[in-house]
Design goal:
Length: 198
């Protein structure tokens, strides 16, 4: 008997609905529904809680193959969470562009911070500051959303963060600010490598 069938049987034997089981083990009803339909496995902590709740062992709930599958799913989920978290931190890290001297100023291209640029049109400084600010804000929002544990929501800041990084790279290359452009490009490459691993 598969895990999903065992879980359904144990739940029904106790006369519980999916909602009641979910409340008893502190998960969402959709999680219980997903497990019972065979679309996934609970993480290790939820498995222990289920086993304790039904007074069975984890081995009785899962076969050896299912234990391996559940562990792999949990490992991939954990890697995805940390990768997403790191991408958001990189977005926040972009705030350094406001303070470190990576912008060329004047004919001698002396390096200065963004707000110390004197021979650059004001609109370029404003657009650069807005792009950097939006990227940082996106990273902060992504960090907050990742704490809510809503996987669907956490994808939006990732996509937006990549779009903002591409925009910043293009902006700095077009305005002939190669150091700032390389900084943003390096962040973009790191994000791409991290997302590829998931």
């Amino acid at each position: 008997m598969e895990f999903n069938e065992k879980l359904q049987q144990l739940r029904k034997n106790k006369g519980l609905t999916q909602e009641e089981l979910a409340q008893a083990i502190f998960v969402s009803r959709t999680a219980v529904s997903k497990w019972e339909s065979g679309r996934g496995y609970p993480n290790i902590e939820s498995l222990k809680t289920l086993a304790e709740f039904f007074s069975v062992t984890v081995d009785e709930l899962l076969s050896t193959d299912e234990i391996i599958t559940a562990a792999e799913e949990e490992k991939q989920e954990l890697i995805g969470k940390y990768t997403t978290l790191l991408c958001h931190v990189l977005d926040v890290f972009t705030a350094l562009l406001l303070f470190i001297p990576v912008f060329g100023n004047g004919a001698d291209k002396r390096s200065v911070a963004l707000f110390a640029l004197s021979e650059t049109p004001l609109w370029i400084k404003i657009v650069s500051a807005v792009i950097i600010g939006l990227t940082v804000l996106n990273g902060v929002c992504g960090l907050i959303i990742s704490r809510l544990d809503k996987p669907l929501w956490s994808k939006h800041p990732l996509i937006t963060g990549i779009a903002l990084s591409v925009t910043a790279c293009l902006l700095f290359m077009i305005t002939r600010q190669p150091y700032a452009g390389v900084f943003c490009f390096a962040i973009l490459i790191i994000k791409g490598c991290l997302r590829r691993k998931v």
